[in-house]
Amino acid sequence: GLKKKEVHLLCLGLDNSGKTTIINKLKPSNAQAQDIVPTIGFSVEKFKTSSLLFTVFDMSGQGRYRNLWEHYYKEGQAIIFVIDSSDKLRMIVAKEELETLLSHPGSFMPLDIKHRRIPILFFANKMDLREALSSVKVSQLLSLENIKDKPWHICASNGITGEGLQEGVDWLQDQIQ
Ligand code: GTP
Ligand code: MG
After folding, report:
1. Residue closest to 124 by CA, chosen among 109, 112, 140, 111
2. Residue 142 carries which DSSP code?
3. How would you classify the pairing of strands 52-59 and 42-48?
């Protein structure tokens, strides 16, 4: 059959937001891990859509590992940024990390995030939790409307059931073709 186009994807966001759970859910069911543990450093994963083969750098969101992210910026052709919609206390930390990402001066210009028009998919994850904020509210708290130089999209998601993931990945695929 037709060879799928390979795309390098960075999966970023704070620890416990659900990055690994989401990436795991995007794999075929027979390839999914049963137990998800906090990521140490990062992990390289793969999943397919109808036309793309994604290689994912699933980064740890723990504070002590977040300085690793920038070393992979130059690899990224697309970004998934995951937010725990129920973690109101750390929304400001998520916002700061996003701002750092978007303004990173980068020693790899024009390959850094700041100078490339790469698509960013936000998952407002954990939508099942009673205290979860809506995707509109998360978008406001992160000031996503200020992102003018990159295509972006936000979806409410449930990493455990997979709800919302397909909508997001469909959008990402459309941006890349
Ligand atoms: P780090 O690797 O430490 O950066 O964390 P992570 O962002 O990869 O989070 P991980 O996927 O390990 O998930 C953290 C916890 O959130 C786990 O207990 C998951 O089961 C849980 N979780 C993930 N997605 C959801 C969701 O949509 N709803 C609920 N209720 N829990 C979720
Ligand atoms: Mg993880």
Report:
1. 140
2. T
3. antiparallel
pLDDT of residue 106: 65
**Structural domain count, the chain:** 1
**Structure confidence at residue 14 as a pLDDT band (50, 70, 90):** very high
CATH (domain of 82):
3.40.50.300
ipTM, two decimals, is 0.99
Whole-angstrom CA distances from 66 to 74, 88, 110, 116, 138 are 15, 20, 22, 21, 21
Which residues have a Cβ under 8 Å from the Cβ of 159 and sit 6 or more positions away?
Answer: 18, 21, 22, 25, 82, 123, 125, 126, 165
**From 16, 60, 67, mutation site for ligand 1 pocket: most ligand atoms within 8 A of C-beta:** 16
**Active centre residues (catalytic):** 62
- What is the residue whose two structure tokens read 């416990």? 16
What the block records as the tokens of 36 is 């998800």
Nearest ligand 1 atom to alpha carbon 39: 2
Structural domain containing residue 70:
5-176
